[in-house]
């Protein structure tokens, strides 16, 4: 059985849509860690943060990570921006970091037709000063844990997915 591909990177970088297009191009399945958390806890991510706090959300991420490592193969895993911190991340699959600098990321988020929903869904984006700091703090950590780094700013998703397929040795 082939290993999974785990997409990591900051909020809004496009991990979900990249995973879905990769799945379409390769015939692999894709799963989203936040969706898995929402389905097994029967709560929205936003609600988990507001009612139970971030530490509880991080526990749920760890639980998902254990399940992925044990049960999931040959799948594109799209993760939340903080998922890279789970202790077994590299055992889940090949780790691909999608990189954009913070300003370009914000531009892309604000250019989105549904910008309000995008921000509302992500509690850690509500304070932009803190989000910028978080991006800065996480950057070396993402880079440290990743097997492959892909630049996403200013590129099409077609181009990004083709580069991942090539660098990760996936078959179209
Ligand atoms: C988070 C990113 C979110 C979600 C949660 C926490 C983070 O996912 O998991 O709000 O810590 O960066 P996206 O990266 O898909 O927005």
What descriptive keywords fit this protein?
alpha/beta, 172 residues, five-stranded parallel beta sheet, 5 strands
Tell me the strand percentage band: 5-15%
What kind of sheet is the major sheet? 5 strands, parallel
Number of discrete helical segments: 9
**Order of strands across the main sheet:** 2-3-1-4-5
Low-confidence stretches: none
Distance between the termini: 17 Å
Arithmetic mean of pLDDT: 96
Q: Round the Cα radius of gyration to an integer and report it.
A: 15 Å
SS elements, strand count: 5
Element order: H for helix, E for strand: EHEHHHEHEHHHEH
Name the bound molecules.
shikimate-3-phosphate
Which percent range fits the helix content? 55-70%
Structural overview:
The chain has nine helices and five strands. Strands 2-3-1-4-5 form a five-stranded parallel beta sheet, sandwiched between helices. With 172 residues, the chain is of the alpha/beta class. The protein is globular, with a radius of gyration of 15 Å. The model has no long low-confidence stretch (mean pLDDT 96). Helix 3 (45-52) crosses helix 4. The structure holds shikimate-3-phosphate (S3P). Shikimate-3-phosphate binds next to loops.
